[in-house]
Design goal:
154 residues, alpha/beta, Rossmann fold, globular, binds flavin mononucleotide
Length: 154
């Protein structure tokens, strides 16, 4: 069983909705389970122990929310332990700007995670189209995590 961590911050619930849809996509894949955690309840250990990870944040002043940034700051010392994990990002904003997404994707590259899909920029209330994309994102993360844990045949 592989575990996909869906780590997010949300104040008014939109990013949380996206996180839960991603988790549904993960759970639709046999052999995969989702662990959805708001970042203030997560620890660096959650990051180390998962097999793949999705990061979600509202767009705050064209950047990720401060608590998500703080999580990455705390995780610096375990950077080597998480390198290579499949990852993707998702954001919710009042506008259509992708700047918060870019800030999360910069972290994906700084931590040398494997970006498995283009991230999602959701504008305003999460839409049905967002739901489809989130479910697909969850599925993609779960399948890639399973592939990585497969024992190579000789
Ligand atoms: C402090 C703060 C700063 C924000 N800055 C931006 C911004 O720069 N660009 C934008 O499109 N939306 C901005 N917003 C709007 C939020 O990103 C948007 O309402 C988002 O959907 C909230 O997500 P949540 O429901 O998960 O908390 C800001 C909201 C707050 C509270």
């Amino acid at each position: 069983m592989v575990e996909v961590l869906v780590l997010y911050y949300s104040r008014s619930g939109r990013t949380e909705t996206l996180a839960n849809w991603i988790a549904q996509g993960v759970e639709s894949v046999e052999g995969a389970s989702a662990k959805v955690k708001r970042v203030d309840y997560a620890t660096v250990h959650d990051f180390v122990s998962c097999d793949a990870v999705a990061f979600g944040s509202p767009n705050y002043f064209s950047y990720m929310a401060g608590l998500i940034k703080d999580f990455f700051d705390k995780a610096l010392s375990i950077r080597e332990k998480v390198a290579g994990k499949p990852s993707a990002a998702f954001t919710s904003g009042g506008g259509a700007s992708n700047s918060a997404l870019l800030s999360l994707e910069k972290m994906i590259s700084s931590f040398r995670l494997e970006k498995v899909a283009d991230g999602l920029v959701s504008q305003g209330e999460p839409s049905e189209e967002n739901q489809k994309i989130c479910k697909k994102l969850g599925e993609t993360l779960a399948k890639r995590a399973l592939e990585r844990t497969e024992v190579p045949k000789d």
